[in-house]
Amino acid sequence: MAYIQSLDNGKFRAWVETGSGYNRKRRSKLFSTKTAAEDWLSRMVIDRNDGMITNPDKISFKNFALRWLDNHKKPNVAASTYKNYKLQLTGYIIPFFGDMLVKDINVFHLEDYFSKMRKSGSKTREGGLSENTLNKHYITLNGIFKLAIKPGIRLLKSNPLEAIDPPRPEKKEAIVMNAEDYTKLLKGIREDQDYFTFILTLLFTGLRRSEILGLEWEDVDLENGKIKVRKRYVRSDDGYIHEQKTKTSSSRRIIKLSSKLIPVLKDHKKRHMENRLQFGPKYYTDKDFVICKPDGHPYYPDYLNQKFNKYLVKLDLNYDYTLHTLRHTFATINLKNKTDSKIVQEMLGHSSISTTLDIYSHVNEEMQKDAVEKMGDAINFE
């Protein structure tokens, strides 16, 4: 039994009964808003081992999915990853399954879900969601149902999703800048010293935008020419945060710096020191960011994207280029220079070599062509 009581002071008290028989207990909590009270009640749905539910057969998909999200995903993933899971659940999955009981969901409901999402699931345009997006939904649902069949929970005897083939993501060839274009870009922004440093560092290291914005000077060893990637500056439910974790465990890595990049970073650091003196007590000192505004505050990531787009227009470059294109360009240059693909994987912070090879398959094809031609030169049968 669970209900919400409206109090005279404008607050709300949520009540829930847990356990059964002699083990029955009543729990309550005070909240400022009814929404917060309802949210707490939904999260009181937990496995029988914790003794917090009276009848596991009455657990709705919505309650169980939110519990999975906050108790099993949030503590273990990056803030941006958690946010993506939440958007999938609240924007698509929960509205479809809603108050259906977990025990009642079967393969036919899941087939209907993916069918509907393919046909008319998009919220931004006519038509359905892409196979890439649906594959992410599949992974989320699979995580929820795997929890539901665990011993001690057993809301389901088996995972109904196993009867459905996962969506097949469409492979998209990574957009890469050619030498003429990145040379033109670097020359065009050379006078914008801080932004030039930002772009050049992306191109020379292959860092993600969130990773370079998360760098502090303590992570940069200019004497030995290396940086430690261990933090990110990302968007969360509470705005932008400096997160002390990376996208995956493999994203925590050490990257060697090019001898051409080191003097640029040294000049950049010198300007920071001068700015610190100029701004005095107004300089932001909570964090010592490498890429930041003149007063030390972090940039909003979208601002750097917008500035990049303005330079594309000004320099008459391909409008399809993005900041992430520089990461693809870094990888492509290394692979074409015969850098071992395992080394490229480690520098990019990919969790597996297959990820790297899939994204940059076009480079592998070019390298295969070279290999075939060399074989033709080596084998003479005429």
What report would you give on this structure?
Residues 46-54 have low confidence and may be disordered. 48% of the residues lie in helices and 10% in strands. The chain folds into 3 domains: 1-44; 55-163, DNA polymerase, domain 1 (Orthogonal Bundle); 179-371, hpI Integrase, Chain A (Orthogonal Bundle), CATH 1.10.443. The protein has helices at residues 34-42, 61-73, 79-97, 107-120, 131-148, 179-188, 193-205, 209-214, 261-279, 301-314, 323-336, 341-348, 353-359, 361-378, and strands at 2-6, 12-18, 25-31, 220-221, 226-229, 232-236, 239-243, 253-256. Helix 2 (61-73) packs antiparallel against helix 3 (79-97) and helix 2 crosses helix 5 (131-148).
